[in-house]
């Protein structure tokens, strides 16, 4: 089964002052969410100051082709709670925002390794024996999954077949 890929735009509140309209090729750390370095400090490099609204994260979940039930699992809430959050366009916690940014780093790294959104999406949706006969996209739903998929991508970048 082939997965169609789209070219997405950054959330407008993150790009208005910079005039960025779409994703650029290159070695960006993030793919769907551009990092604003205006507040970064050397003392606290992992500090997450901004929080995403649920609507801003849907571009990432659409890329992963997650259902509403899968998004609820990822956010560790009941599906009915997720429906309420969507209606209110809920501001996510800093912890959820960090997890979503980490997933975005996975997308950026995967596209650099595979060369396109479509090829990386195909890998994400293919059962992988090295990851316990699971699809990487399913592993990402769980807290430790981000690290496992990241390690698999690192190994691939060094020539190991996954």
Secondary structure layout plus pairing:
Layout: H1 12-15, H2 54-64, H3 68-75, H4 79-88, H5 94-114, H6 117-124, H7 136-139, H8 145-157
What is this structure, in a nutshell?
The protein has 8 helices and no strands. Helix 5 runs parallel beside helix 8.
What are the key terms here?
single chain; mainly alpha; globular; 8 helices; 162 residues
Q: How would you describe what is shown here?
A:
The chain has 162 residues and is mainly α. The protein has one domain. The protein is 49% helix and 0% strand. It has helices at 12-15, 54-64, 68-75, 79-88, 94-114, 117-124, 136-139, 145-157. It is globular, with a radius of gyration of 16 Å. It starts with 11 loop residues before the first helix and ends in a 5-residue tail after the last helix. Mean pLDDT is 81; it is low at 19-26 and 41-45.
Secondary-structure-derived class: mainly alpha
Radius of gyration from the CA trace? 16 Å
Oligomeric state of this protein:
single chain
Mean pLDDT: 81
What's the order of the H and E elements? Answer: HHHHHHHH
Residue runs with pLDDT of under 50 for 5 or more positions:
19-26, 41-45
Proportion of β residues? under 5%
User: How would the global form be characterised?
Assistant: globular
Helical amount among residues, as a percent range?
Answer: 40-55%
> Could you give the count of β-strands?
0
What is the count of distinct domains? 1
How far do the termini sit from each other? 19 Å
Largest sheet: none
* Tally of alpha and pi helices: 8
């Amino acid at each position: 089964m082939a997965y169609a890929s789209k070219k997405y735009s950054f959330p407008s509140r993150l790009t208005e002052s910079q005039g960025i309209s779409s994703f650029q090729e290159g070695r960006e750390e993030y793919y769907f969410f551009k990092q604003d370095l205006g507040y970064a400090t050397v003392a606290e490099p992992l500090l997450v100051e901004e929080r995403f609204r649920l609507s801003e994260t849907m571009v990432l979940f659409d890329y992963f082709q997650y259902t509403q039930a899968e998004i609820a699992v990822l956010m560790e809430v009941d599906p009915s709670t997720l429906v309420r959050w969507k209606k209110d366009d809920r501001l996510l916690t800093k912890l959820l925002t960090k997890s979503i940014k980490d997933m975005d780093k996975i997308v950026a790294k995967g596209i650099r390794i595979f060369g396109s959104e479509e090829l990386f999406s195909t890998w994400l949706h293919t059962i992988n024996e090295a990851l316990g006969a699971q699809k990487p996209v399913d592993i990402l739903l769980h807290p430790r999954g981000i690290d496992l998929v990241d390690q698999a991508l690192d190994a691939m970048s060094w020539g190991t077949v996954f």
